[in-house]
């Protein structure tokens, strides 16, 4: 494949920047607080339920909408305010420069809301790099939020953008998302610069068969096979 015909689908958090350092802890706390306020849960129950829905559906919002009737727009607006977020965001200078040089089309595909994605990209200097942002608001089917790793959503997004799966490479830190993408014929790259442990504390060392390549920097993407 000509490198310029490749379509890169980049995740955002813990792929383009270190979300585990500050953004994720604040987001997790904000989501738990939302569940305490609007579902009447204790802090402990909210934290446990948030984690359960993330493990089961790949996104807390999916579980809240499906089982509690939570409105996505309200949830996203209330949980992603995160005042002062930009001051704590950072990527890696060599990675970000390599991303700009990478041949092919570049799209962002994130389970985060558009307002958050735009804030992060502006803060780390990548606002003008991506041809298109595919955010959680764009991942809705039949009135329900269907973020990654929903395979139906992947199919719809690819069809909507007229993308052939075999030309696409999903660059992600989350394995369950890569497994879904690979089942549809996309190539997959597992980014491990910042996330080295699973949610249960296990170290992430073994590369599953559905992962085409494991990398610890965006610089390494330039060496991704062109076949």
Report on this structure:
There is one protein chain. With 227 residues, the protein is of the alpha/beta class. The protein folds into 2 domains: 3-17 and 89-223, Rossmann fold, CATH 3.40.50; 23-85, DNA polymerase, domain 1 (Orthogonal Bundle). It is 38% helix and 13% strand. The protein has 8 helices and 8 strands. The longest helix has 17 residues, at 23-39. The protein is globular and about 55 Å long. It starts with 6 loop residues before the first strand and ends in a 12-residue tail after the last strand. InterPro entries: HAD-like_sf, HAD-SF_hydro_IA, HAD_sf, Pyr-5-nucltdase. This is Pyrimidine 5'-nucleotidase. It comes from Pelomonas nitida.
Topology:
Layout: E1 7-10, H1 23-39, H2 43-57, H3 60-68, H4 72-79, H5 93-101, E2 105-109, H6 114-123, E3 132-134, E4 140-141, E5 144-145, H7 151-160, E6 168-172, H8 175-183, E7 187-191, E8 213-215
Parallel strand pairs: 1-2, 1-6, 2-3, 6-7, 7-8
Antiparallel strand pairs: 4-5
Helix pairs in contact: 1-2, 2-3
């Amino acid at each position: 494949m000509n490198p310029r015909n490749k379509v890169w689908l980049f995740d955002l958090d813990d792929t383009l920047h270190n979300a585990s350092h500050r953004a994720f802890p604040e987001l997790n706390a904000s989501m738990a607080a939302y569940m305490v306020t609007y579902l009447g849960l204790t802090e402990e129950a909210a934290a446990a339920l948030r984690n359960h829905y993330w493990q089961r559906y790949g996104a807390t919002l999916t579980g809240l909408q499906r089982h509690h009737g939570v409105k996505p727009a309200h949830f996203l607006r209330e949980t992603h305010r995160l005042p002062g977020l930009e001051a704590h965001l950072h990527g890696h200078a060599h990675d970000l420069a390599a991303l700009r040089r990478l041949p092919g089309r570049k799209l962002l595909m994130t389970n985060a809301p558009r307002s958050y994605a735009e804030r992060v990209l502006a803060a780390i200097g990548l606002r003008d790099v991506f041809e298109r942002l595919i955010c959680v608001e764009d991942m809705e089917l039949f009135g329900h939020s269907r973020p990654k790793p929903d395979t139906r959503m992947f199919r719809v997004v690819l069809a909507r953008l007229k993308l052939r799966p075999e030309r696409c490479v999903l660059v992600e830190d989350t394995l369950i998302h890569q497994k879904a993408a690979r089942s549809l014929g996309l190539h997959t790259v597992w980014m491990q610069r910042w996330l080295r442990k699973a949610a249960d504390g296990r170290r992430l060392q073994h590369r599953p068969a559905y992962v085409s390549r494991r990398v610890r920097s965006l610089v390494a993407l330039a060496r991704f096979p062109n076949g």
